[in-house]
Design a protein that fits this description.
By secondary structure, this protein is of the alpha/beta class. 30% of the residues lie in helices and 24% in strands. The protein contains 10 helices and 12 strands. The strands form 2 sheets. It has an 8-stranded mixed sheet. A 4-stranded antiparallel sheet has the order 2-1-4-5. Helix 3 crosses helix 4 and helix 4 packs across helix 5. Bound molecules: iron/sulfur cluster. The site of iron/sulfur cluster (SF4) has 14 residues, from loops. Pfam families: ABC_tran, oligo_HPY. InterPro entries: AAA+_ATPase, ABC_transp_ATP-bind, ABC_transporter-like_ATP-bd, ABC_transporter-like_CS, Oligopep_ABC_C, P-loop_NTPase. This is Peptide/nickel transport system ATP-binding protein/oligopeptide transport system ATP-binding protein. Keywords: ATP-binding, Nucleotide-binding, Transport. GO terms for molecular function: ATP binding; ATP hydrolysis activity.
Length: 322
């Protein structure tokens, strides 16, 4: 399968401090020089702490916000160059599932209206055909089609997230950005929703960018995994390779925090000290150097280059690329 999404040197700097004349005094470097690809039909997991830029990356890929610079290609089309009409056509091929199933559904709309809304907006169906499609989609996500007249508050968190998934599926997209889709759910419900997403991917050949806080959630759904820290991609590799041979000290620390199911297995817990620095004035050199247990002098002066080895394992760390 070829690449469905190609992201190159993507930056998003939000101005946060302006003079009265509009001159920008400082910016939040939410995403800074991030590059990756997503192959058609795969799941790319994207993890990192709050504020690392992963959600901003998802919104940039959908063009919900404009990049400061860099390239985003979808199905061979450069989204920055595409005229608005063509962008609307591409939009129904790209959808999003939001983190919070409680706030992401309009409480004044029925389930039927919520799922039908993208079909009507993109001119894909109306009337009886639209109602039939909505019933089909609800059944696909494991909800009774008779729920169409009910309102979101009548459902549990897991059911509401199924409604959110149905809304994202309605236009039969090729790409779905899953923005922490299970983090607001009970642990007992999380695996049901993850299994549903996997089944739908198989059935419809969907491509996912799966954003999550921790590596434990993306482990079961991702083909490849990228790790972000303070606006930068610091490591990217096949899932098994990343979990078995993490190279970046930050990834090693995140992995060490995952509970080990085998009580005889010994894994050293790496505790990171200090807070994540401000993205308004990030540290010089390697942005992780203020918390890295393996920091060297060069790390404070020189930014490590994000490079791959022969097995396509990408990492930005002076320990690896000397
Ligand atoms: Fe740590 Fe230096 Fe590698 Fe950054 S470049 S992760 S500070 S060892």
């Amino acid at each position: 399968m070829g690449d469905l999404v190609v992201v190159e040197n993507l930056k998003k700097h939000f101005p946060v401090n302006r003079t009265l004349l509009g001159k920008v005094l400082s910016t939040v470097q939410a995403v800074d020089d991030v590059s990756f690809t997503i192959r058609e039909g795969e799941t790319l997991g994207l993890v990192g702490e709050s504020g690392c830029g992963k959600t901003t990356v998802g919104r940039l890929v959908l063009r919900l916000i404009e990049p400061t610079s860099g390239k985003i290609q979808f199905a061979g089309t450069d989204l920055a160059q595409v005229p608005p009409r063509e962008l609307r056509r591409l939009r129904h091929q790209m959808q999003i599932i939001f983190q919070d199933p409680y706030s992401s559904l309009n409480p004044r709309m029925t389930v039927g209206q919520i799922v039908a809304e993208p079909l009507i907006r993109h001119g894909l169906a109306r009337g009886a055909e639209c109602r039939a499609k909505v019933a089909d989609i609800l059944a696909m996500v494991g909800l009774d089609p008779s729920y169409v007249r009910r309102y979101p508050h009548e459902f549990s968190g897991g059911q509401r997230q199924r409604i959110g998934i149905a809304r994202a599926l309605a236009t039969r997209p090729r790409l779905i950005i899953c923005d922490e889709p299970v983090s607001a759910l009970d642990v007992s419900i999380q695996s049901q929703v993850l299994n549903l997403l996997k089944d739908l991917q198989q059935e419809f050949g969907l491509t996912y960018l799966f954003i999550a806080h921790g590596l434990n959630v993306v482990k079961h759904v991702s083909d490849r995994v990228g790790v972000m820290y303070l606006g930068k991609m610091v490591e990217l590799a096949d899932g098994d390779e990343l979990y078995n041979h993490p190279l970046h000290p930050y990834t090693q620390a995140l992995l060490s925090a995952i509970p080990e199911p085998d009580p005889t297995a010994k894994r050293e817990r790496i505790i990171l000290t200090g807070d994540v620095p401000s993205p308004i004035n990030p540290p010089s050199g390697c942005r992780f150097h203020t918390r890295c247990p393996k920091v060297m002098d060069i790390c404070k002066r020189q930014e490590p280059v994000f490079q791959a080895d022969q097995s396509n394992h990408w990492v930005a760390c002076h320990l690896i690329h000397k």
